[in-house]
Amino acid sequence: MSKETEGQSDVTCESLDQSELVAMIELQLSEMDMLQSMFPDPRELEVDDPSVLCDLRDFAEGRTLLLPPRLDLVINLDGRLSMSVNLPHHYPAVQPSVFVRSQTLNRDAQHRLNQELLGYLKTLQQGDLCVGPAVTWLQEKGETFFDDCPEEVSKSDDNLVEIKDTKFARLWIYSHHIYSKVKRKDILDLSKEFDLTGFCLPGKPGIICVEGLSRNTEDWWHKVRSWNWQKILCKKHEDMEITAEQDLSKLRRFSTFEELGSENNIRVKSSGFHVDMGDVFRYLENHESGYVFKEYFGINGRPT
To answer: Which residue intervals define the domain RWD in the entry (predicted)?
Structure first.
């Protein structure tokens, strides 16, 4: 995990009573013990950074006053449903960030599943642990979303684009930092789910570009910005009208969505999270987007 907390919420930890914060983290740890007994296979319960659990125990037991990073985890159920969870420090006083995805559900069914799960979580008593109940709900209700689930429109039909959405959009996102492996995986998975192309550059700062149908970019952005971030904003929003005869792929500057690194000829320093900005500028230039470098960093770019 990062050296600093992956995000800040609207309720700051500094505003919380120390004993209350310790009590909340103790509850988180008790729930994690329960989840680990339910899912002993590490492929079923994936903790983004297992050392965070040790840090949380040290904080709860008074061995350190340094507040650890937040806990990110993924719970994989029956090979078909995967639930990503981010626990704020003040959980369970507030709800965690929870999102379920599936490789076999179409987008409408997946959206409906997440909305119904969110509705269920809102029925729970405020202050109660809810990750365990969310798992139980998914185990009981999840299978029903696969019943009579129509297949997605094939990719070959994508250029016929239900031209109900008549706009193509490109979003340029800036984040204070992107370190979390869970967030990075979720960004990649969501981009695939919404048929978006572009890139994610992890590190500090983190930058993301997504492009595709306007409604898809809006849905993607709505989900991503709801996660816990220290700072995240859309630096630039570009859109254009789609005519009935246009090939959607011709509007794209990126052929896929990818995480940038050495495989894209971007030199990464030893820390793994600091890159050569000249290489980033060159990558943008190669995708007709060099102008956005100044939007991100306030200076004109140049290759090194």
So the answer is: 30-145
